[in-house]
Amino acid sequence: MDLKEKLVSSFIAFENQVDIDSYVHDIRTEAIKSFEDSGFPTKKNEAWKYTSLKQVLEPDYSIFPRQNKALEYAKIEKYLIDDIDSYKIIFVDGKYSSHLSETTHEGMDICLMSSVLNKPKYASVIENYFNKAVKKDGISDLNTAFSKEGAFIHIPKNKYVEKPIQIIHFSSGNESSLMLQPRNLIIVDENSQLQIIERHQNLSENEVLTNSVTEIFVNPKSIVDYYKIQNDNKQASLIDTTSIVQERSSVCTLHTFSFGGKLTRNNLTFSQNGEHIESIMKGITIIEDKQHVDHNTLVHHIKPNCESHQDYKGIFDDKSTGVFNGTVVVEKEAQKTNAFQANNNVLLSDKASINTKPQLEIFADDVKCSHGCTIGQLDKNALFYLKSRGIPEKEAKALLMYGFANNVMQSVKIPELKKRITNIIANKLGVKIGFNL
Amino acid sequence: MLSIKNLHAKIDDKNILNGINLEVKAGEVHAIMGPNGSGKSTLASVIAGKEEYEVTDGDIYINGESIEELSAEERAHKGIFLSFQYPVEIPGVSVTNFIKTAINETRKAKGEKEMPAKEMLKLLKDKSSLLEIDRKFLSRSINDGFSGGEKKRNEIFQMAMLEPSIAILDETDSGLDIDALRIVANGVNKLKSSKNAVILITHYQRLLDYIIPDYVHVLHNGKIVKSGTKELAIELEEKGYDWIKEEVKN
Lengths: 437, 250
Ligand SMILES: Nc1ncnc2c1ncn2[C@@H]1O[C@H](COP(=O)(O)OP(=O)(O)O)[C@@H](O)[C@H]1O
Ligand SMILES: [Mg+2]
What we know:
The structure holds 2 protein chains of 2 kinds. Chain A is of the alpha/beta class. Chain A is built from 8 helices and 20 strands. In chain A, a hairpin with a 2-residue loop joins strand 1 and strand 2 (95-96). In chain A, helix 2 (23-38) packs antiparallel against helix 5 (138-145) and helix 6 (380-387) crosses helix 7 (393-409). The N and C termini of chain A lie far apart (50 Å). The mean pLDDT of chain A is 94. By secondary structure, chain B is an alpha/beta fold. Chain B has a single domain, classed as Rossmann fold (3-Layer(aba) Sandwich), CATH 3.40.50. Classes of the chains: A alpha/beta, B alpha/beta. Chains A and B meet through helix 6 and helix 7 of A and helix 2, strand 6, strand 7 and helix 3 of B.
């Protein structure tokens, strides 16, 4: 039985464990039907042309993991940004770990999907927002069908949330291969501010496939900063669908740091539902071996006077492969749109490759749109320049790569996170550097 | 200190250096002049260890030891410094971070501890004021958007920070206005001592009014065809290089 059949035939059993009566029940039922029709995307699908899931779908994944073993804090500490005061929503093998987490219901909800899905108090929020942002395709339908757990965050209006929220999904290795389908819903009401750090981490050598869906609603005048750290091990694959709906005068910035994992696919969509919206997407990808990272972005400019900025940098070594597929749609009504897109890549080996494809679909006539992509090697003259000052080859290369990625680092607003990412990069490049970016 | 013996080098089957001999002792200043394309920058790059050039014959010695097998960074650790004719722009890496890394990597290579932050700060302050460099300049990306003069001044600033024993300045004077030239020359003179040596590659004798050379060499077709003292530089300034080319022919 292949994974699709297994998932479809497990649906009834899954539904029986959860709340049949809830509003979400119908959505799930519909979603499993859609998934049954479409299945997993294949390379025949234009949007998946350069990313094949074939190998990733092979293992016989457990889709209902057994009760997880309790993880000690000491074991996971290093995956947290632990030198800042933060809220933490932590899952182990798809199940909420209360002793590792720090949530709240005081003046705002920073909690769990499972705890709101069938509570009458939250019924209207769920009806208004759940499954409303995400673009429906096979992969997100599958997540919707099995949606049950993840982070639920609702920030009321006029609230500046000082502490960042860390959402981390661990897999313990309890199952020989595990499929996870976290579902996050984040709603930020008018004039509020929020920072989130999200991470997926496999703690064992066992295969893990994560099919994650996150919906984010950024209501008028709100500011959201979202950071994704994708630095998993070589047995972990991630399909991450993040759909963001922004309302008037809001700013949403999303950073994606892709440093590892077997296969990583990011489906990122921004919909601009009002005027004076700013959407910012930044990414640094540094991978090696046979790793694969695919960034698929879509910005939908619907209303006038909005901006979008995309700046993705990639460094590919060995036989690693990258994809950047960025689409910008500017509707007829969306006059005075500014949309910029840049994708710059460095190939460190002649076996590494990147497929980069910007797509502009512009129906308005008074807009400023630009895109640029580059693919190159490290500059030999620059390398000699650094070496001639006594900086060894490895460090010199690292310095050049830092310089290359620095633009993206500059917009990270949490200093401890910036430091952590700098360290991850240094570790990856096998160097020790004596400064922070 | 630096000894170059019968040095031949080529790139892509093109012979550029054709048997260079040069002896530089501690405390000396040597000027290397010569027409465009004669191989001056190539000589500088080969001494600094640029790998694109292939040394086909001869050798370079520092304090009696061949440096043939040494990488560019190892040569730097031995005290060689090259002020580039065309300094490279490196976006995203600040001058300060770059120079800190260079100093500490050099120390590491010598088995020394990293320079304490306080000491580093003081050094940065002293040397930037020696070269009349604005502190803001140090947080900018290396050479990125620098004017020609700023780039050259930044090269000498790095030299001041690294305190090399053999400094090769490749056309550091070009692109400098007279005030900047004076500042740079003053900086070089302050760094000069009986323990180090300076090789000045230049077109004009203008720089040599400020930094007085002990010897002047003329490079032509990858060979030193004439050596002399400061007077030779003055003669070259007046008469150009044609008479030397004639002399070589005969
Ligand atoms: N990287 C290179 N590739 C090909 N030719 C080069 C290279 N570097 C130097 N040359 C050639 O070698 C000769 C000497 O160049 P160079 O050393 O720059 O001269 P100078 O500094 O005296 O003006 C020139 O003919 C130049 O074109
Ligand atoms: Mg030259």
